[in-house]
Amino acid sequence: MNLSSTRWQWMAFGLAIFLAGGCATKQVEQQRDALIQENSELRNELDVARLAVEAANSTISDLETQLSSSLARPGGTVNAMATNTGFESIPGVEADRVNGQITVRIPGDILFSSGKIGLKKSARSTLDKIAGIIRSDYSEKTIRIAGYTDSDPIRKSKWADNLELSLQRAAAVHRYLQKQGVNPKQLYAAGHGQWKPRETKAKSRRVELVVVLDE
């Protein structure tokens, strides 16, 4: 075997090693990207579950307060209508009845992805239950649908500001409830942006339905 032939063999061997290394690197990158995506999805599911637990705890606390207040009145009896709005049984949703109106709070992270106005598939189950209760129990009542955001400024999405985003999210809920048979004459949508925050950013991102009982 001459020197030239040996040299070409070594070059071919080196090229094969290089290509094999490149393929291995690409596979590692693909596995890494898949793990990053899976981690992101798991984090999102965890956030939704955490919000549902917080909402449930808040509802329990509100009901305990109302119960204590009712028992402290003369006679010590509880008015069932004062605590039972029909919305309490929906997972992840807060509901309370105060001063002639019912406020139903839905965490924004259950309804929407960050910066988006399209409803998540998982949101439809929640809104379907709400629509059913409205049709059966509050079909003659005016319902305000109000969108709220946290204080983080808009950076990547197409919305001009948080006010526009909150209004578009309220409108998305309005349209969905209408499709589920709620009379659109009952509904109107409004956006409040970041100006009515709650205790945390996660709780600030929300849509509230206010059922006006005393009209």
Structure description:
- The chain is an alpha+beta fold and 215 residues long.
- The protein has a domain of 134 residues: 60s Ribosomal Protein L30, Chain: A (2-Layer Sandwich), CATH 3.30.1330.
- The protein has a five-stranded mixed beta sheet.
- Helix 4 crosses helix 5.
- The chain is elongated.
- About 4% of the residues have low confidence.
Descriptors:
6 helices; 54% helix; alpha+beta; 215 residues; 5 strands
| First-last Cα distance | 102 Å
Sequence of strands across the biggest β-sheet = 1-2-5-3-4
CATH-level-2 architecture of the domain at 79-212:
2-Layer Sandwich
Order of helices and strands: HHEEHHEHEHE
Named CATH topology of the domain at 79-212: 60s Ribosomal Protein L30, Chain: A
Which structural class is indicated by helix and strand composition?
Answer: alpha+beta
Gyration radius over CA = 27 Å
Largest sheet: 5 strands, mixed
Strand content: 5-15%
Proportion of helical residues? 40-55%
Q: Number of DSSP strands?
A: 5
Kindly report the name of the CATH homologous superfamily of the domain at 79-212.
Answer: OmpA-like domain
| CATH first level of the domain at 79-212 | Alpha Beta
Please give the count of helices: 6
How confident overall, as mean pLDDT? 83
Which regions are unreliable across 5 or more consecutive residues at pLDDT < 50? 74-82
Shape: elongated
